[in-house]
Amino acid sequence: MRRLLNALYDSAAAMAALCMVGLLGMVMLSVISRLLGFNARGVDAYAGYLMAGAGFLALAHTFKCGEHIRVTLVLNAFGSRTRRAFEVWSLVLASLLGVLMAFYSCRLAWQSLQFNDISTGVDATPLWIPQLSMAIGAVVFAIAFVDELVLELRGQRKAIISGDMLRNE
């Protein structure tokens, strides 16, 4: 199960990386089209869709690597039992909020598909297509929160210290 979950997080990160490469392609196309004097319609909209996709798809992997911003000042002031209680409480709350975000992201994409909602730009893209990356990223992020909660309750959660926290500049 652990390998499956890690593969899920890594796959979402790989899709985020592909979105970033696509974003680079859109920016390059926009710059080149302006230099050569032609108009590449919808490039700005697609760049925005890819940026949102990259952000949402990278959430779970970033969380599991311990790279999200954490405020540990308060937690470090408590003993181990109180600290664990706060960790469990915050992971329960984060899991609930993550599941809500995933549910409403999926619902938004589904409703956009049902209503044939299209973008207002020149590209007229069906909005469920870019919203799908947001929904997938939100679902994987919710799974990561629940995964961390289960690991914490079992006492198997490892404290990941980001490399940036070790540097004093």
Oligomer classification? single chain
Kindly, what is the distance between the CA atoms of the first and last residues, rounded to a whole number of angstroms?
40 Å
Main pleated sheet: none
Uncertain stretches of 5 or more adjacent residues: none
How confident overall, as mean pLDDT?
Answer: 89
Number of spatially distinct domains: 1
The strand count comes to 0
What's the total helix number?
7
Helix content: over 70%
Query: What pattern of helices and strands is seen along the backbone?
Result: HHHHHHH
Report Rg: 20 Å
Structural class: mainly alpha
Q: Which geometry do the CA atoms define?
A: elongated
Kindly estimate the percentage of residues that lie in beta strands according to DSSP.
under 5%
General description of the model:
- This protein is mainly α and 169 residues long.
- It has one domain (2-161).
- Helices cover 75% and strands 0% of the residues.
- The chain contains seven helices and no strands.
- The protein has helices spanning 2-36, 43-57, 59-64, 73-76, 80-114, 128-154, 163-166.
- The chain is elongated and about 65 Å long.
- The chain starts with a helix and ends with a helix.
- The model has no long low-confidence stretch (mean pLDDT 89).
